[in-house]
Design a protein that fits this description.
six-stranded parallel beta sheet; 9 strands; binds 6-phosphogluconic acid
Length: 239
């Protein structure tokens, strides 16, 4: 694993840096394997990155978009991570609809939807039960509680090792989320973290030792590159 922590001057610089890394990973993935697979994050921090991608002249037919987690709401709901990424990015570029793989949320049964998304991933990557595909890029954020994707402190989702996708739990509300072993197979994980409210969580995530069940982002240790991009307010935590 190559791990890099960068503190950028402000949110604009954070977005510019994340864009540069994403573009470089897209180039490499397409050059080496012909396609690039990206897992999008929810939350507010990556939205300007999605908007910035619209201006890029990319081979969109070779880019496949998934989500690392999703709120358990309909696709048109304001809380939907899919909706945010579509409005900011995917509806505004020439990407084939079949390249977009949202997490399903319509079964009225989060476990069934998690399982359906796992099957979709297995079919896309042509893998069997027990195998884990390597995403080219997984975008992530953290919450003030050190959750990432929908892996919340103290929840059973943190301990799932035999599935690609599982049910997360935010204060009793179900979510759909990538599991730790799926995230950790990635070729490149990019955390985008902004704001002073993230400092205490970052201090625990970067501490030499701390409880992973309490600070779930510590569990992210990918086989590929791990980028922590912080704005200066969040970056106070690593001074
Ligand atoms: C979500 C997430 C979540 C998010 C963090 C950071 O769906 O909410 O994927 O893990 O990345 O909560 O959110 P902000 O970017 O809004 O701080």
């Amino acid at each position: 694993m190559k791990k890099v922590i960068e503190v950028l001057a402000n949110r604009e610089e954070l977005i510019a840096r994340s864009l540069a890394i994403v573009l470089s990973q897209i180039d490499t993935a397409i050059a080496e394997r012909g396609i690039c697979t990206i897992a999008a994050a929810g939350g507010s921090t990556p939205e300007p990155l999605y908007k910035a991608l619209v201006a890029e002249d990319l081979p969109w037919d070779k880019i496949y978009v998934f989500w690392g987690d999703e709120r358990y709401v309909a696709p048109e709901h304001p809380d939907s991570n899919q909706r945010m990424a579509r409005l900011a990015w995917l509806d505004r570029v020439n990407i084939p609809a079949s390249n977009i793989h949202p997490m399903p949320t319509g079964a009225a049964d989060p476990a069934a939807d998690a399982s359906a998304y796992q099957t979709e991933l297995q079919q896309f990557f042509k893998i069997s039960d027990g195998e884990f595909p390597a995403f080219d890029i997984i975008l992530l954020g953290i919450g003030d509680d050190a959750h990432t994707a929908s892996l919340f402190p103290g929840t059973p989702a943190l301990q799932v090792r035999d599935a690609l996708v599982t049910v997360g739990n935010k204060d009793g509300q179900p979510r759909i989320t990538f599991t730790v072993p799926l995230i950790n197979r990635a070729r490149c994980v990019i955390f985008m973290v902004a704001g002073a409210s993230k400092q205490p969580a970052l201090a625990q995530i970067f501490a030499p030792a701390a409880d992973e069940m309490t600070y779930p982002a510590r569990l992210v240790q990918p086989e590929g590159e791990l980028w922590w991009l912080l704005d200066s307010a969040a970056g106070e935590a690593v001074k």
